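Final report, closing paragraph on structural work. Over the funding period we assembled a curated collection of sequence-structure pairs, and we close with a single example.
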Amino acid sequence: MRFGVDFGTSRTTIASCDRGNYPVVSFEDHQGDIHDYIPSIAALDGDHLVFGFQAQALAAQGAPALRSFKRLLSDPQVTEQTTIRLARRDIGLLDLVTRYLAHVADTLRYASSATSELGKGPLEAVIGIPAHAHSGQRFLTLEAFRNAGWHVHSMINEPSAAGFEYTHRHGGTLNSKRTSVLVYDLGGGTFDASLVHARGTSHEVQASRGHNMLGGDDFDLVLAHVTLQVAGIAAAQLGDAGWAELVEQCRIAKESLNAQTRFLTLEVQGKAISVPVAQFYDAATCLVEETFTTMLPLLHTDADGDAQLGADIAGLYVVGGGAELPLVSRLLRTRFGRRVHRSPHGSTSTAIGLAIAADPDAAFTLRDTLARGVGVFREGEAGAQVTFDRLLTPDMRLNLDGTMTFTRTYKAAHNVGWFRFVEYSRTDEAGVPSGDVLPYGELRMPFDPHLQHGTIDLSVIAVERTFDGPRVQERYRVDTNGIIDVEIVDLDTGYSVRQGLGHPH
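Its predicted structure, as stored:
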């Protein structure tokens, strides 16, 4: 049996493939109540680490807990050795995520609506990843799923998966004039937007933009600050435990909001505080406007200079748990009018789309973009200069099977090549990466045949210009998960150096 798994910042949702239907899997908590998600939370029960519903219950009783740990994966400094602290205990982040995903697998097998249909074979899945995730985040997420016992068929950008769910259920809105959908995906920890062209079951992502540090968690923090403002209390007066408790209260209160709610009641230091919803919305509007700024490159600029939905867009499809806040739909409709459609499946839309992608009989195909560019700083003028070379641009499209290869051949001009790879979201007018630039790994290649033997430390070899260097070929391969492998080959001697980029060791 195959599944679509949306590992979320605050909740993990799963949908199954069932003969052309894609029901959301429900889970039973420790009290026998049924939910369509598993909380993405870890907590300590004494010295024992627990997850999901049990962790959520312990956290409510004051146990040390970790929420939103998925968001930590988006930090470009994270490696396989990164640790996080919980109650004076250091826990490896990769180990934590792996153990959580193993808990998800166990809950699916033994305490879910799919339990009776599962055998003892591997759990097969297509998993989601934020569209703007850097390669290290992709690698660690994939590694955690595999270490947890999942058989991962592919990893798909989350808004691209939501595009599958849109056309599966709302394909009638697409026609010869309106051929695309703009997916607006505001989750618990990230925001992504993708412009998806659809023709039947064939999907092609035109472009994607994202913000890895903007999501529902940030709205919780805004509400907490507004609550303290109304109460006339400084955050420092609460202490760390009191602040964490208030933020959790705010999350629960925010999720209970509907269009008619006028006040929220929260407790601060034993006193009930009545917070006007309008005051919360005024403070949170800037977060929604930041999503508008992020997706600006995907919009059409009219004659007055205003950014609007292009004429070929059937609708703006609003998905993700964070987007269930009434303020989000209100501001989107004010800005973009009637073509704003909120998914009736809300936070489970992506999981349904991933299940559609996992179903071989659905015949859906996807041609996605890289979402982030890749370039390399190289040695120039005998090491006196460094030049930047754009290899792959953010909007470069992958082949239908999700892979892409790219080669370049030249005559080496130095004894040693020092390649410093980076990921970037944009370049300036001079073609140099700017803004969101992340180290992507580095590689040294000996072009001098005398340096191609033994275990010479190339970092201590001075770069020198040569006049009769070898013919060199660089080979880049992007796999189905958006992770890039580079091989540099001396075509004269056959010597080569190969490395997977973005593997955060």
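The longest strand covers residues 433-446. The CA atoms of residues 489 and 496 lie 4 Å apart. We thank the funder for supporting this effort.
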